[in-house]
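Record Universal stress protein, 170 aa.
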Amino acid sequence: MLRGPVLVAFDGTPASRRALHESALVLAPRPAVVVVVWEAGRAFDLADIPSRAIEPGLAPIDLRTAVELDQALYEQARRLAEQGVALARKDGLDATGRVVADDRTVPDTLVEVASELDAQTLVLGAHGHGALSELLLGSTSRAVLRKAPCPVMIVRDKDHRGHGDRTRSG
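=>
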C-alpha cells in the first residue's frame, strides 16, 4: 500500500493550476508535495554553442553568466514551487514544495520522485495537445501513465473540457 503524499506536478500553467485545484477537491486533506521540475545546467548548454550558431554578431555566454543564469532559473523554479504550495494550501491540501532537477525527461523525473516518496497519487495537468501533436511529439501525461508506480490523476485544461475532465489510471 502506498503511504506517501499526493505528488502534484506544477509548472504554473493554467492546466497545472487546475490540476492543483481539482486534486484538492478529490484528495484533501491528504499531505501533498508540489513538485516543480527545472532543467539544471541549461544555461551551460548555451555557453557551449558558438555565438555564430545562435545569431551572427552575438557574443558567446561566458561561464560566469551561465552560472548566474542557472541560479536565476533555479530561483524562478523555487518561487514557482512556493506559489504552487500556497495554491494547494488555499484549496485544503497539506502541501510542501520541492524543486527537482531534470536530468533525463520530465516524465522520468516525476516517476522517480513518485517512487522515492512512495506517492499515493501523481497528479498533473494536461495541456491538451491535439492527437496528431501527441503522436508526433509524445506526451508527458502518456509517459507518466505508462511508467508511474502509483495511480495517476490527469486534469485537462478548461479549454478542453469537452474531452473529459479527469482520467485515472493505476
